[in-house]
């Protein structure tokens, strides 16, 4: 069919992005390239023991009683049959939620089809009119989309800056920012027009952070965040939500995440663990109280109005969690930490020997806290192409996924902030 006026409008917009060098394209990774790009930090999806356990579980459940039951409730169907509120629920799904919640030291959990749906569902429905969401300026795009759907006010604070620089307890992983520290922001809220309702505990404040940030790979100073929130909101109306997407599987005992690593399970209101990174699966879970779980079942639209995960998806999650809980992933986590230090050391040595301009080639001087290692450059696309032509799967990350002037190629990660 001939192009419509709308097609011409969209084509013009795409041409503008192409002229700026910002056009996104789908590509197919080479099977022979060395992976420096994907989120599969532990390579669990290709691990022989994980694959064997998955196939065994899948086969046993799909073949068991297949001749006597065709109901989705039996757990033996390939598909789920519908949303979980209709015909898509199963005992296997509910058992899996309890298994994951127990593993992470949480009261309850609710599965979502993706981390994006978990964040949009959670932030869209839980904060009420009059509540406030304060969020790290580098929070993931899915949280932004959830907040836009919320009726609550939303205010950013400087990335990983808990206190002002003048404070002896200053904690910051970033330089200058146009936003205040978390402490300064909470102080201003308690003294502003909403101060009386906040100080009395009537207004809820939600604090949104990530365990490990998907663009810079740095960890949140979570202990200081908790202490700050509890100090400024002593009525207990400060509710911290941690997106553990990039810390699941690699931080904490047996990969339980940053919250468990720091022993903060009882001081964090909700956690979002996703399975598409180190876990090598797909889907996500919101860990929270039983009351919050029931509320999400009733009000989270990304849960209510979507087809439930199929049994094969649930089985893959079950298999990888068993692999973590058994301790079999511990050597892989240790090896990953060794590789992180080795790669950072090699890049730091290149910079020391060749002294390139910071605009052309620089890294964060601190040893990374995660497998996400950004290499900042104003030639991100050219450098990525150069590496790809030599057998290394490296991706350019450019605006608008990251702020203007912060283009990079990056080992590991996924997501964005806008």
Automatic annotation (TrEMBL):
One Pfam family linked to the record: Aminotran_1_2
Name of the protein described by the UniProt record: BioF-keto--aminopelargonate synthetase
Keywords annotated in UniProt: Pyridoxal phosphate, Transferase
PANTHER family, A to Z: 8-AMINO-7-OXONONANOATE SYNTHASE, CLASS II AMINOTRANSFERASE/8-AMINO-7-OXONONANOATE SYNTHASE
InterPro entries given in the database record: Aminotrans_II_pyridoxalP_BS, Aminotransferase_I/II_large, AON_synthase_class-II, PyrdxlP-dep_Trfase, PyrdxlP-dep_Trfase_major, PyrdxlP-dep_Trfase_small
Cofactor(s) it depends on: pyridoxal 5'-phosphate
PROSITE patterns linked: AA_TRANSFER_CLASS_2 (PS00599)
Protein origin, superkingdom: Eukaryota
GO molecular function, one term: transferase activity
Taxonomic classification: Eukaryota, Fungi, Dikarya, Ascomycota, Pezizomycotina
Species the sequence originates in: Trichoderma parareesei
Domain Aminotransferase class I/classII large: 34-410
């Amino acid at each position: 069919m001939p192009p419509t006026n709308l097609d011409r409008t969209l084509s013009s917009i795409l041409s503008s992005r192409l002229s700026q060098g910002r056009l996104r394209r789908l590509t197919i990774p080479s099977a022979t390239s060395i992976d420096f790009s994907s989120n599969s930090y532990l390579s669990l999806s290709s691990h022989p023991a994980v694959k064997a356990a998955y196939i065994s579980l899948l086969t046993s459940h799909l073949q068991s009683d297949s001749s006597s039951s065709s109901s989705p409730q039996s757990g033996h169907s390939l598909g789920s049959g519908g949303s979980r509120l209709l015909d898509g629920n199963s005992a296997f799904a509910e058992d899996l939620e309890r298994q994951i919640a127990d593993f992470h030291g949480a009261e309850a959990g609710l599965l979502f089809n993706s981390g994006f749906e978990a964040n949009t569902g959670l932030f869209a429905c839980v904060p009420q009119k009059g509540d406030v969401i304060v969020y790290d300026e580098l929070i993931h795009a899915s949280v932004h989309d959830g907040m836009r759907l919320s009726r609550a006010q939303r205010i950013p604070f400087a990335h990983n800056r808990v206190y002002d620089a003048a404070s002896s307890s200053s904690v910051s992983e970033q330089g200058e920012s146009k936003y205040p520290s978390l402490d300064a922001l909470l102080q201003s809220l308690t003294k502003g027009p909403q101060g009386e309702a906040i100080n009395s505990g009537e207004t809820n404040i939600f604090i949104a952070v990530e365990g490990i940030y998907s663009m810079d790979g740095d960890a949140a100073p979570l202990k200081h965040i908790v202490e700050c929130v509890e100090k400024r909101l002593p009525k207990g109306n400060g509710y911290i939500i941690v997106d553990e997407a990039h810390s699941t599987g690699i931080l904490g005992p047996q990969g339980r995440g940053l919250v468990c690593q720091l022993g903060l399970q009882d001081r964090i209101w909700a956690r979002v663990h996703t399975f598409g990174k180190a876990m090598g699966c797909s889907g996500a879970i919101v860990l929270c109280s039983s009351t919050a779980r029931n509320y999400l079942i009733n009000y989270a639209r990304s849960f209510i109005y979507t087809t439930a995960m199929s049994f094969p998806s649930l089985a893959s999650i079950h298999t990888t969690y068993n692999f973590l809980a058994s301790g079999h992933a511990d050597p892989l986590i240790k090896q990953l930490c060794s590789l992180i230090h080795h790669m950072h050391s090699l890049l730091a040595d290149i910079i020391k020997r060749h002294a390139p301009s910071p605009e052309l080639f620089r890294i964060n001087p601190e040893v990374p806290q995660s497998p996400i290692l950004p290499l900042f450059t104003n030639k991100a696309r050219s450098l990525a192409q150069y590496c790809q032509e030599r057998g290394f799967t490296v991706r350019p990350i450019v605006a608008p996924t990251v702020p203007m002037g912060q283009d990079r190629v990056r080992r590991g990660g996924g997501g964005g902030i806008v």
